[in-house]
Write a structure and sequence with these properties.
5 helices, 2 domains, 169 residues, mainly alpha
């Protein structure tokens, strides 16, 4: 429980530093505005998906006195953290690709061909991409279960008499 909270706060810190340093560079203001304020679904996914569902709500479930001793709240916090992480990955990867970029600054492009770089395009993942993402999570979960069963991570007994005195709180 404590380790999950530390990881959530650590990732939040790095995301905060990432966005603050990108706001420092003048050339990145448009991208940061797009992600943080004016990007439509990407802004909603960042603030509602990552910040609320993936950061604030799990920390509340882990550290509020009402929820802190519940196994269900710890499992919900872990699940919400995964959902928030997926939202953040979607915002970074897909949002970064759909942001309209001026390829030749200060130049007039006479013919765009089949694409118009000033237009923000939408992206819908295909069934194969969805299956690839779900299978990646499934493989990671399977390997975690196998590692916990094979490697000596879990205690053999939870009895108080079997706990080493040096590791008691």
């Amino acid at each position: 429980k404590k380790l999950l909270g530390v990881f959530i706060v650590g990732v939040f810190y790095f995301v905060l530093v990432y966005h603050l340093t990108h706001l420092y560079f003048t050339g990145r203001h448009g991208v940061e505005y797009f992600v943080l304020a004016g990007g439509g679904i990407y802004t909603v996914l960042f603030w509602a998906g990552y910040m609320f569902l993936g950061t604030i709500l799990p920390l509340l479930l882990l550290y509020h006195d009402r929820f802190t001793n519940s196994r269900i709240s710890i499992a919900a916090a872990a699940l919400l953290t995964i959902i928030g992480g997926i939202s953040l990955l979607y915002v970074i990867i897909i949002g970064g690709q759909v942001y309209p970029v001026e390829i030749f600054p200060g130049k007039e492009i006479i013919n765009y061909g089949a694409i118009h770089s000033s237009t923000m395009y939408s992206y819908t993942p295909s069934i194969w991409e969805i299956m690839l993402g779900v299978s990646g999570i499934a493989i990671a979960a399977f390997l975690t279960v196998v590692a916990v069963r094979i490697l000596p991570f879990m205690p053999r007994s939870l009895a108080d008499t079997d706990i080493d005195e040096t590791f008691k709180d």
